[in-house]
Amino acid sequence: MKVSYMIASHNRRDELIKTVQSCFEQDYPDKEIHVVDDGSTDGSYEAVRSRFPEVILTRNSSALGSVASRNQIFERVTGDILIGFDDDSRFINRDSTTKVVKRFTQEPDLGLLDFQDVGPEFPERIPATSTDRLSGEYPVSGYGAGRFAVRRNVLIAAGLYPSFFWHAYEEPDLAIRIWDCGYRCLRWNDILVWHEFSALNRNEERTHYQHARNEILSVFMRAPATYVIPLCLWRMFSQFRYSQGRGWRTVEFRVWRDAARMLRLALKHRRPVRAATLRQCLLLSRRQGSRPTNGTKLAGSVCRTE
Q1: What are the two backbone dihedrals, phi and then psi, of residue 121, each rounded to the nearest 5 degrees?
Q2: Domains of the chain (ranges plus CATH)?
Q3: Are 15 and 198 in contact (CB under 8 A)?
Q4: Global confidence as pTM
Q5: Tens digit of pLDDT for each residue in 216-231?
């Protein structure tokens, strides 16, 4: 299987260089590396072009957002297995890609793998002997866009990210569609990803706003008709409770206003999943990270392509 590494970046030149270098250092031979420079002004494009001429590099003249940037890569890759990183994350072990490909080869119903973050965001996991590192594996209803692998044919079957999300919540929106196609999404904690967790371009309140807005829009795109209103109200209540606890007093009003403004666009992309899929993913989101298991597979398949 050919592997395509995918990295979307905005104004994190030094971190991006480390991530690209780490992809070349993986011991798996059949690979390509795609980078989208999303409107950077810090010389990221020039640095990658000069140091790594083999990289397939795209430059957006102005920022389109991480979601649209990743879609650009999705549409251009040629690998069978796609491995996504943030521009400040990378595999810790050189044989990680080999292990990932082997697992996809052995398990044809495995659609997506999520990995374990290690680094400044989770300092308790940094020591190699740490008992705080997660172990085992379990099925998930979401994943980290900066630490995952997916089959390209599964992505084609499930569909790309909603580009109008700009940033955040694209992962659960894709995961539920992968499950609905009859494939599994697993968190595999044996594969470690070092995440620098750069402070550049990070704003927690802004991220919450984008996450909460897109979560509401995803309900209207993916939930069966009878679930839309109750699930939307529950999402809004949960978001409001969280933001008030963080001291963000007005952010939810902007979330609701902008979700309403974007609702017509979301409905144009409506592709509801089966009720059984939605119920299963809601359960997974509550149980995620509880105890290791061999995973689960939803019954049925509506668009499997293998």
Answers
A1: -70, -30
A2: 3-195 (3.90.550.10), 204-268 (no CATH)
A3: yes
A4: 0.92
A5: 999 999 999 999 999 9
